[in-house]
Write a structure and sequence with these properties.
150 residues, alpha+beta, two-stranded antiparallel sheet, two-stranded antiparallel ribbon, 5 helices
Length: 150
């Protein structure tokens, strides 16, 4: 076994900088500075996105998928093109979220007035109008033990 001591390993052959060229031209010349990268990306984005006409899968009508929308989709990482026109998209969203709330009439267990509540009242739990609910929540009045029959 041979052990080398005191040996200096120099730079690889051909890696010495030349006097006519800087050691690292990409950094010293600023070829890959933030401004250059930003300008390159801006040019690439402007050239790639053009308004496209798409057909809605629900109603079959044509709609425009604008260059701005395409850029927005790309910035958010969305890779699929929209399948629905804006109107059908809004209808589908309303269908997913359940649409408007259904309100039910009930008798307030604290004051006896009629209250409109966004849930179906049950006979085993008290129901309050909005002002009495705030008072019960703040501890100003005691919660009702049994619902008022009416």
């Amino acid at each position: 076994m041979r052990i080398l001591t005191g040996t200096s390993f120099g730079p690889c052959p051909g890696s010495e900088p030349n006097d006519s060229q800087p050691a690292n031209p990409t950094i010293q010349d600023g070829a890959f500075g933030d401004e250059a990268i930003s300008a390159t990306l801006d040019r690439r984005m402007d050239g790639v996105y053009e308004d496209r006409t798409l057909a809605c899968r629900d109603c079959g009508e044509n709609f425009i998928f604008s260059a701005g929308e395409q850029r927005f989709f790309a910035e958010k990482g969305l890779v699929n093109t929209p399948q629905r026109c804006p109107n059908c998209r809004a209808i589908a969203k309303r269908a997913r979220t359940g649409g408007p709330r259904e309100y039910h009439a009930a008798i307030c267990n604290a004051c006896g007035n009629q209250a409109m509540v966004p849930f179906a009242p049950r006979t085993d739990r008290p129901v309050y109008c909005s002002s009495c609910f705030d008072k019960v929540r703040a501890g100003l009045i005691a919660p009702a033990a049994a619902p008022v029959q009416g």
